[in-house]
Amino acid sequence: MKVIKTNFLIFFITFSTSVLFAQNEIADTLDLDPVVVSATKNSDRVINLPLNISVVNSKDLQKTVSNSVDDILSYQSGINMLRPLGIYSNSVSMSLNGMGENQGRTLVLLDGIPINKSDNGGVNWNKINSNDVKQIEVLKNSSSTIYGGSAMGGVVNIISQKPNNAGLHGDFGAFYGTNNTVGGNLNLNGRRFKDKGLYWSMGGNAKTSDGYVLQPDSLQSPDVEYLKGYMQEISFNFVAGYDLDKNNSIEIRYNYYDDERGLGEKIEAEKGSYAEHDTHSANIKYIGQSTDNKWFTNFYFQQEDYFKNIEKLSKGVYDLIFVDSKRLDYGNNTQFTTNFIPYNSLAFGTNIKQGSVNATDDYQTSTDEVINKGLLTQLDFYFQDKIDFHKNLFGLLGVQYNVSNITDAAFLIEEPTSSTDFMEDFAGKLDNNNWNKFSYNAGFRYNLKNFGIYTSYNLGYRSPTLDNLTRSGFMYLGFKEANPNLKPEWIDNYNFGLNFTNKKILINASAYYNLGHDFISYVETGETLFGGRKKIVTTENISEVQIIGVNTDFKYNINKNISLFANHSFSRSEILGNNENTDIIGKSLTYSPEHIVNGGVAFYSKYINVSLNSRYKSEQFTSDLNDEQIDAFYTIDAKVWTVIGNRLTVSASVQNALNHQYLVYYDQLSVGRFITGKISYRW
């Protein structure tokens, strides 16, 4: 009874309170009809599209209590962020609409460029600098028709700032926080003429923190020294562009990111186990427009050198392993849109992407080298038509054809000793594999004064990752054998939504039904290693999954000084079929809570601004059999800031004010209360 009362109180508080403040920037009316880019890869308005889209604008960014971009996203309905270690997280995952913990099922774009890695489908959220973000668009429908693989669960498009004002401008910031966390940023930008000619921007960011001991006392081993899970990172950004005229522009962007994060355990190595990313990414794009036509083309690449040192001690035998994984993704997105047919906006395009991995486990205590490599090529052709049937009735129809293949795949063992010779049976060149897939979408929207209603169907898919296709090695379930013969996952996605808006209130409600096919899961092969002590598992397309959900959003600007928001995400998943493990039929997907409730209140005044946010998550299963879980919890975040002379901003914030901690996976403790003070100046 106490739990029920507590949860009801949490729900009431979260649903009744929210944030939305920016000194002298909040208006009495809501920004109800934002322009979006991600929905059709061309600017359009949410109110004219039969899609479930939310937009995080600059005002939302300023008021949110956050240390990273994904902190901001965690307050959006339909999103479950998995970042339990806070800024110390080496791996961060996001899922949309109950799609589970696999980041690869949701496509993430940075200025229209896909940043999911072909190797594991993941996104390095740490490298995205929140100071550079102008707007975030979240498309919660399956979007494979336009975006191809990885967009099976939806799309997040992060849009960076662009210098628009003539002259030289800049900003500087510094902060200090819990665990001796210190950081700062400096950015310079300029252009000679407003909205035309040459523009440029460059900036850098740095952060370091002593961290905390990740492993709880009850799980510590006497053979291991437990260190603080520290972090340090640095990044640099450069942008140069030229607006040829008001309709044509060319731009180049470059980003460098380097970090190191301690994993908290030491046996003999000086710093213990740690991981680092060394990343270079760049793109060049051209955007043009005439009276009836629009076009753009993006060329991009992302190179990540991932390093991790691993220490092992088994039966008195010590191993030190350097994991060096070189991940490369590059490609092109091109689209042409024409309005030459009245009331129709026709889009034709291609997405081309190649991703490769060349990874080595180099044993420093012996001669062993374990290598996995492969090349994944994906080519998409698509067509989409946005139809204005009437001033109040809109349609969206699309089709895409994908061709993909895996080549040059191998899992190799060189100079094996007793540390790796048991893996020789799995070594050698791996089979080439190819697949093709059609995807479709159809949607309709009807608007009437302040009310709108829409429905859509989408067939989405996701290509398997190089990690599952090419890499064999140990994991928490046992020894994983690579499977180069995997096929894409795919879903039938049905959506229905409605919204109501007036000058001060916004209400959105959407329901969805996903029927997933050929979902990739781990299965036991029936074989073992070391006399039965380690099971051998592999990945197979084995599961059919049903996901039912509802997202509701509420925003209310009481006046220019006070605003509220609240949202609730309900998602229930069920494994309907599994041809390898019938024990998990009827179970839920892991790391997929049924309920997430967010809410907040914000107050603006001439001298002080305050925001208060709260989040509640119901229990999340951490095992396929649903016999292990993270219990339900809630957090409260708060921020206070003031703007002096319209240039100097001073703020203080606290995340997880009640210091709620829980066990992550099986051996790490989530981050607790985190306090940050920050000062920034712009000119």
Please give the structural blueprint:
Elements: H1 2-16, E1 35-36, E2 44-45, E3 53-56, H2 58-63, H3 69-73, E4 79-82, E5 93-96, E6 107-110, E7 113-114, E8 133-139, H4 144-147, E9 155-160, E10 167-177, E11 181-193, E12 196-209, E13 225-226, E14 231-245, E15 248-262, E16 265-266, E17 274-289, E18 293-314, E19 317-338, E20 344-363, E21 369-390, E22 393-414, E23 428-429, E24 433-448, E25 451-462, H5 466-470, E26 473-475, E27 478-481, E28 489-501, E29 505-529, E30 534-557, E31 562-578, E32 595-604, E33 609-617, E34 620-621, E35 629-630, E36 633-644, E37 648-655, E38 663-664, E39 668-669, E40 674-682
Parallel strand pairs: 6-9, 27-30
Antiparallel strand pairs: 1-2, 3-8, 4-5, 6-7, 8-9, 10-11, 10-40, 11-12, 12-14, 13-16, 14-15, 15-17, 17-18, 18-19, 19-20, 20-21, 21-22, 22-23, 22-24, 24-25, 25-28, 26-27, 28-29, 29-30, 30-31, 31-32, 32-33, 33-36, 34-35, 36-37, 37-40, 38-39
Descriptive report:
There is one protein chain. By secondary structure, the chain is mainly beta. It has a single domain (2-257, 273-578, 594-682), classed as TonB-dependent receptor, beta-barrel domain (Maltoporin, Chain A, Beta Barrel), CATH 2.40.170. The protein contains five helices and 40 strands. The strands form seven sheets. It has a 22-stranded antiparallel β-barrel. Strands 3-8-9-6-7 form a five-stranded mixed sheet. Strands 1-2 form a two-stranded antiparallel sheet. Strand 18 (293-314) and strand 19 form a beta hairpin. 43% of the residues are buried. Residues 1-27 have low confidence and may be disordered.
